[in-house]
Amino acid sequence: MTPSSMTPQFAAAGSAAIPLHVIETEALADWLTGQADHVRRWVDANGFTAARGQALLIPGQDGAPEMALAGYADAAQRARHRHVLAGAVQTLPAGTYAIASGLEGQALANECFGWLISSYNFSRYRDTPTPEARALIAPSGIDTARIEALAAAECLTRDLINTPSSDMGPAELEGAARALAREFDAEITVIEGDALLEQNFPMIHAVGRASPRAPRLIDLHWGDTGPKLTLVGKGVCFDTGGLDLKPAASMALMKKDMGGAATVLGLARSIMALGLPLQLRVLIPAVENAVAGNAFRPGDILTSRKGLTVEINNTDAEGRLVLADALALAAEGRPDLIVSMATLTGAARVAVGADIAPFFTDDEIAAGALAQAGPAVADPVWRLPFHEPYELKIEPGIADLDNAPGGGFGGAITAALFLRRFAGPGRYVHFDIYAWSQASTPARPKGALVQGARAVLDALPAMLSL
């Protein structure tokens, strides 16, 4: 697919740039003490307090820009907002800037990432004016290639999720995976339609068979040395709920139900662009959960690839079904780590809200690495438990497993326990993401949102001993 926005990059080194000072509110007075009289007067005359979102261009004695200031807020405000500097980017005049002071270390890297993705604009379906460029020269002390790779992955994932289902069905999702494979010389195979039954992916076939857009399993491989990492992403390109039809309000955002697939494709892009020393596999069951005479029914019992039988108590709990067959295949390859990502349950949103990506794992090394990585890269994640007593809830008696246990409690946990039955016995991490920003904030416009991918990327060295 054609990206809706240019791939964000830093300005070329050597470009003429305006020095930019990023100033915390509590540090403004001290900073002004060391400045010339005309700078102090200009700051005072313009009411600049270094609040979040404030920016100020300061002219020199000849009238040309001498420097620019960006507010970095106070500690309390910085704790509440993810990309603070991005709030000032659009307030600055168009031009090229170089951060001269105020940021260092991981905060510098995070804010540079926020600057780059603040230019994201999904304009595929309408003509919008090209925004004036506010370019940034990469400061010393950061991994420029890594930040650019993260920004490119962010834009890819957002584009895929933002695209409506009319233009992002299973075939188009396959096309995006094939384009990524071509870009990084990866191998890709796809099993489509009735071939899913022939090759023992019965639950992927059952969920997708009612749609005129054939279901498929996308399988991408890259790298031939190092530990084996398998990413599995839920690719439900639209979810009507099936015969247990969703109400209209619940169906409105179902174009984002392939957010797990989009997220693992973005994460895979980062891994390949950075050339990480591992063997990567990406599995995406891509389906549309539609309504037709041949749709799977409540009360049906399906036999999975792993041989476990599943009673269907709700056709709207379809994501775990397609993931189950893909996870079973992933486990057969005996990777060192499996990570699944899916827009799976509303219960996860109730538990932690839309801004945090909850994850489940029995692996303490992975849990510890992710707990450290999330805050470090401004990608908040939170561990939820594989609570063993809830295993009873997913065992209906008539079959091995129940895809939608009643009662309404612990829905994110029971869904994760269901998936664990297929991913074992190796190391496994499952993310239950929302993949959507409900309101626009700096660098995060309303619409598609990437969750968990940067935390996983940052944690990979510890999780896989890279």
Automatic annotation (TrEMBL):
Keywords: Aminopeptidase, Hydrolase, Manganese, Protease
GO annotations of cellular component type: cytoplasm
One Pfam family this sequence matches: Peptidase_M17
InterPro entries recorded: Leucine_aapep/pepB (IPR011356), Macro_dom-like (IPR043472), Peptidase_M17_C (IPR000819), Peptidase_M17_N_1 (IPR048816)
Domain Cytosol aminopeptidase: 314-321
Molecular function in Gene Ontology: manganese ion binding; metalloaminopeptidase activity
GO terms (BP aspect): proteolysis
Transmembrane intervals: none
Family, per entry: Belongs to the peptidase M17 family.
Protein name per UniProt: Leucyl aminopeptidase
